[in-house]
């Protein structure tokens, strides 16, 4: 019996944990959980905020586009908002204010400045008005992008508005797709791009780093083959609809990521 007793003591020593060891393991698990849970929660909150911001920006772009095309009442704006369904994944209430500028805000994530792209929206409308009444443009050039841009630049005081991204200044310029020559309203064929500041008008060079999408009111930056570094890209689309589809679906050369990605922070000035 003594031999058997020693055998079980040795076996217990090899196979089991002491109470102290179990307490240590439990303590370690508790510490790891205390660290991990807030981290996961924080990342979840950040993801929800990012989705809310993107959805609000998309709504803002649609509202601005509707305002330019047909005008926009508060009731119409609320209807467009409601048609999008749940905008904030965190359950925030999204409100829209229609005035001189359109403001979209969330009860949880804030927002509502509404004026980040006011210069861009104004430039698109001004260029549209100029195309519909092209003073000084020869009759045989009234549908040519180059001629319209050159005369518009002169009518605008020989200057372009400024877009500042990461401390670098770019000039904002309009582009007109000549496919819209028979359109009743040319807005479906006008967009903006930005390139490093130059003197005067540069026509024929349509590979640039930054593109403004009138549909969602967002500036996009283009990336190169591997999707890791910014690189210039062509902005010669047939229409605003084609542009919107391209920036949201076109992949970089190796297919690893989207070629066009939203610019997180920028300022505009005349």
UniProtKB/TrEMBL annotation:
The chain crosses the membrane at residues 21-41. It comes from the Bacteria. Residues 141-222 form the Pilin PilJ C-terminal domain. InterPro entries: N_methyl_site, Pilin-like, PilJ_C. Keywords: Membrane, Transmembrane, Transmembrane helix. This is Prepilin-type N-terminal cleavage/methylation domain-containing protein. It comes from Oscillibacter hominis. The lineage of its organism: Bacteria, Bacillati, Bacillota, Clostridia, Eubacteriales.
């Amino acid at each position: 019996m003594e031999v058997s007793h020693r055998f079980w003591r040795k076996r217990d020593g090899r196979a089991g944990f002491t109470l102290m060891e179990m307490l240590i393991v439990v303590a370690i698990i508790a510490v790891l959980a205390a660290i991990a849970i807030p981290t996961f929660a924080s990342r979840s909150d950040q993801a929800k905020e990012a989705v809310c911001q993107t959805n609000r920006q998309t709504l803002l772009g649609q509202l601005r586009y509707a305002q330019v095309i047909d005008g926009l009442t508060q009731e119409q704006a609320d209807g467009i908002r409601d048609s999008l369904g749940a905008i904030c994944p965190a359950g925030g209430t999204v409100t829209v204010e229609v005035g001189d500028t359109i403001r979209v805000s969330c009860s949880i994530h804030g927002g509502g400045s509404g004026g980040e792209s006011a210069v861009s929206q104004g430039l698109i409308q001004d260029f549209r008005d100029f195309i519909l009444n092209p003073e000084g443009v020869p009759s045989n050039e009234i549908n040519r992008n180059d001629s319209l841009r050159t005369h518009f630049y002169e009518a605008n005081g020989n200057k372009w508005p400024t877009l500042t991204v990461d401390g670098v200044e770019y000039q904002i310029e309009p582009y007109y797709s000549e496919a819209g020559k028979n359109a009743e309203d040319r807005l479906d064929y006008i967009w903006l791009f930005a390139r490093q500041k130059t003197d005067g008008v540069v026509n024929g060079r349509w590979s640039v780093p930054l593109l403004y999408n009138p549909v969602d009111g967002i500036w996009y930056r283009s990336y190169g083959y591997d999707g890791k570094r910014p690189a210039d890209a062509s902005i010669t689309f047939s229409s605003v609809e084609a542009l919107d589809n391209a920036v949201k679906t076109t992949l970089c050369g190796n297919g690893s990521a989207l070629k066009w990605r939203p610019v997180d922070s920028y300022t505009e000035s005349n």
